[in-house]
Design goal:
The chain is of the alpha/beta class. Helices cover about 45% and strands about 20% of the residues. The chain folds into 3 domains: about 100 residues, PAS domain (Beta-Lactamase, 2-Layer Sandwich), CATH 3.30.450; about 160 residues, 2-Layer Sandwich (Alpha-Beta Plaits); about 280 residues, EAL domain (TIM Barrel), CATH 3.20.20.450. It is elongated, with a radius of gyration of 41 Å. Bound molecules: ligand C2E and magnesium ion (MG) (2 copies). One magnesium ion binds next to loops.
């Protein structure tokens, strides 16, 4: 037995030694595993104090382990998270639950580190778990969030963010019905010109600076947002009356009056502003924005740098306009358009017999419910929507075909001039000449019989493209006339740049002939200059013999107006032409007006 004793002790010691070795190896293995992890592994005691950490802690939060162990884990949380953190740690320790939560910690150097904490009770009164660094993920999410809610150019809230603010203001209204607010819709005037002339970079710079000036007009509770392009929106949380909203709009107009310096260029820009107050419309974000937009549309219509406050009348008009816009598209398919023709007369000086020189084609619309509509009701809509291009070429085709028929009925060598209005949109169509050629060929009308009337505003946009287009038309043998001359305040001095055949003096000048003496002087100046430049002059809107006499005395020899004839239907023109031919054979007295019935 005694012989066995030492062997037993030795064995025992050996086993113990081996066990210790294995334990140490196992611990080393675990420690290595724990140290090689990407996450912080931690253990806390029953008081929430740190008792174990791997070195990932130091890599992640900066602190050396020996300065940290024994301190409470919640000490390292962001101050705003500490109460919540402490409470959660207590819950794990007291109620033995497991948690997985995201927390903001502070790095030793002060910056924020987002850690996802997974912890569970360790069965010894404390808890253990891992802390995973999720800062990159948080940053990426925040970036996405930022992009989703902000305009990247100006850094302002975007449409999505604005609508959320608006909905919040609407929700507040439910609890506090007197807390009204206002929505402003801004659109810069002529921003496109800056972009086109100075380039997009300058345009961007301008938008950023405009945003800064706008922001200065607002109080911190208000929200300024950019919806894109040159459109800004403002939510005025503190403004409850139309007066206050208008005053703020004025402040904005004033803030923009000073020039902007863009790469050595001084740029002036103004804005149009549409205003709606929360009590003016249903408390729905979509309606508020829509009505602010309607008000903006009205502000633009007044002219640059204006504001308009929404009212219900505006809404009715917009609905009507939208309806007309919709009906216009079907009007062509349903054959609802008709062309009237107003004669243009030549009268020699001293006043002799009037002779028909030609006709101006004037469009009418037989609207299915609104009756006969004048072009002033629908041409502006067609222009805005671009439908004018299709409609305008339809007019050109119909009128040319009609004029050719009259031409064939007239005695040989008499030529009937046809004037057709060309909108500025049509004028700039790249394939304008090809289309005109096709129409002339298709209808057989001689090109020298056609005069295209372009408005003064079309040529006022005195660009290279405009001048090129005018020269192109002129050299193709088509005559050009400037319509409504005098209304666009264009400089007479640049008329010589354009090879124009005729100036049509706007009827507003003719109608004011007797009232203002300077009108007579202006008309005289226009006539003298036009003749010096080899152009003809047509006076529009002549309604009585006094106007005719005065204009004729000033040197004008062509006239259009109710005194001679209202616009006529094609069949009325046929009769008038026959009558006119008979008349020119037997001269008659001045003052004759074609009194055909149903004139428009
Ligand atoms: P506009 O080209 O200046 O045509 C002359 C307008 O003056 C016509 O109005 C004509 O009816 C009216 N008028 C003629 N004589 C008198 C007069 O003695 N007194 C008064 N108060 N008015 C007179 P309308 O037909 O209503 O056309 C208005 C405008 O609509 C035209 O002005 C023209 O700018 C535009 N327009 C008409 N047809 C077309 C078209 O086919 N295409 C385009 N783009 N515009 C058109
Ligand atoms: Mg005209
Ligand atoms: Mg005119």
């Amino acid at each position: 037995m005694t012989a066995h004793q030492p062997i037993g002790d030795e064995l025992h010691t050996q086993i113990q030694y081996r066990l210790m070795e294995e334990l140490a190896a196992s611990e080393a293995r675990y420690r290595q595993l724990v140290e090689n992890l990407n996450e912080i592994v931690f253990e806390i005691d029953h008081q929430g104090h740190l008792t174990f950490l791997n070195r990932v802690w130091t890599n992640t939060l900066g602190y050396e382990l020996n300065t940290v162990l024994t301190r409470p884990l919640h000490d390292f949380l962001h101050p705003e998270e500490q109460d919540n953190g402490k409470c959660l740690i207590r819950q794990i320790l007291d109620t033995k639950i497991s948690i997985k939560e995201e927390f903001r910690f502070l790095h030793q150097s002060g910056h924020l580190v987002w850690l996802e904490v997974s912890a569970r009770p360790n069965g010894k009164g404390g808890a253990s778990g891992v802390l995973m660094d999720i800062s990159d993920r948080k940053r990426a999410t925040a970036q996405l969030q930022y992009l989703a809610y902000h305009d990247t150019l100006t850094g302002l809230p975007n449409r999505l963010a604005f609508v959320e603010h608006l909905e919040q203001a609407i929700a507040n209204l439910q609890c506090n019905p007197h807390q009204h607010f206002a929505v402003l819709f801004l659109d810069l005037d002529g921003f496109k010109l800056v972009n086109d002339t100075l380039g997009h970079l300058a345009g961007d710079r301008l938008l950023i600076e405009v945003a800064q000036r706008l922001q200065k007009c607002l109080s911190p509770q208000d929200v300024l947002s950019r919806f894109g392009g040159d459109e800004f929106n403002i939510l005025l949380r503190t403004v409850t009356t139309t007066l206050a909203a208008t005053q703020l709009a004025k402040q904005i107009h004033d803030a923009l009056t000073q020039s902007f310096e863009l790469e050595e260029n001084k740029v002036f820009i103004s804005t149009s502003i549409g205003i709606v107050l929360s009590h003016q419309t249903a408390p729905v974000s979509e309606h508020l924005l829509q009505n602010a937009d309607i008000a903006l549309y009205n502000a633009k219509a007044i002219g640059k740098a204006n504001s308009a406050i929404f009212d219900c009348d505006m809404h009715t008009k917009v609905v009507e306009r939208l309806q007309l816009e919709h009906d216009l598209r079907h009007g062509l398919e349903r054959d609802e358009f008709e062309i009237y023709y107003q004669p243009i007369f030549g009268v020699s000086t001293p006043i002799g017999n009037p002779t028909i020189k030609g006709f101006e084609a004037l469009l009418r619309w037989h609207h299915p419910t609104r009756g006969l509509l004048s072009p002033e009701r629908f041409i502006p809509i067609a222009e805005e929507t671009g439908f004018i291009v299709e409609l305008g070429f339809w007019v050109l085709h119909q009128a040319c075909s009609q004029a050719q028929k009259w031409q064939e009925q007239c005695p040989p060598k008499t030529s009937i001039q046809l004037n057709v209005n060309l909108s500025s949109r049509q004028f700039l169509q790249p394939d304008l000449l090809r289309k005109i050629d096709e129409i002339l060929q298709g209808t057989g009308l001689e090109r020298q019989c056609l005069t295209l009337e372009i408005t003064e505003s079309t040529i006022m946009n005195d660009t290279e493209a405009t001048r090129f287009r005018i020269k192109q038309l002129k050299s193709s043998g088509i005559s050009l006339s400037i319509d409504d001359f005098g209304t666009g305040y264009s400089s007479l001095s640049y008329l010589h740049r354009f090879p124009i055949n005729t100036l049509k003096i706007d009827r507003s000048f003719v109608q004011n002939l007797n009232r203002k003496s300077e009108n007579t002087e202006i008309i005289e100046a226009i006539i003298v200059l036009a003749h010096k430049l080899g152009m003809d002059v047509v006076a529009e809107g002549v309604e009585n013999p006094i106007q005719l006499k005065q204009l004729n005395a000033l040197g004008c020899q062509q006239f259009q107006g109710y005194f001679f004839s209202r616009p006529l239907t094609a069949s009325q023109v046929k009769k008038v032409l026959a009558e006119h031919q008979a008349l020119t054979k037997a001269p008659r007295q001045l003052g004759y007006a074609y009194s055909t019935k149903n004139q428009s």
